[in-house]
Design goal:
single chain; 269 residues; alpha/beta; 2-enoyl-CoA Hydratase, Chain A, domain 1; 2 domains; globular
Amino acid sequence: MGYNKILYEKKEHIVIITLNRPEVHNCLSLETASELHQAWQTFRDDDDAFVAIMTGAGEKAFSAGWDLKEAAQLTSMGDFDRQRANLYNSPGPCGYTRRVDLFKPTIGAINGYCFAAGLETACTLDIRIAGEHAEFGCLERRWNIVLADGGNVRLPMIVGFGRALELIITGRRINAEEALRIGLVTEIVPADRLMDRALELARAICELPQGAIRADKETVIRSWGRPVSEGLFIEAEMASSMLMRQDRHSEGASAFIEKRRPDWKNFGR
């Protein structure tokens, strides 16, 4: 499909997905969500795509959240019924936020406002790098809008139960420095270096054998919140599956002993 509200670009093994509505701070609409559903599935299913970076167009915003003009149009019971069906049945009302089948690494280049559903979208990404001017917050609190794109679930996983509840309840804005301090982002870089740093990290990940990365990410996702005993069984299952693959760990161990570069026969899978 073609894209109107996002940009989808592939450079070698790296996909860049850009929210492309800078005139409204990259707010997320139903059309944007539909395009994001397709984009993330395209990345997921592309054997030649190893890492994805998500960012926002322009210099002011990653995403300021759900498009409130669209939200204001939900006035009838029919509108609400359709929205309820979308919440339950779609990959996500504001993006690919209600699916947990992306086991390839993802990076967020947070270039400005990251509010409400934009923050929830950022929380779906594995690594978040912030420009020094980035701001974060559950600003939907001000408009009596609930978090519906996984923020209530993922934010406590990232910053801890107490910190998440404080941010969710108060809806206050925090800057990049506080986001780094509480673990919401992993590093801060000057705004003009943000994409360079994201690409640098993505290229470094691409140089690694991808099989173990994906298996370990899947283990973390599938075992989170389960009893330790169940999580350990999931880990053992994923480790066992790696023994059956062409890029199994024995090649890496042999290459280390023989002081040579590993020859990954099935590098991208």
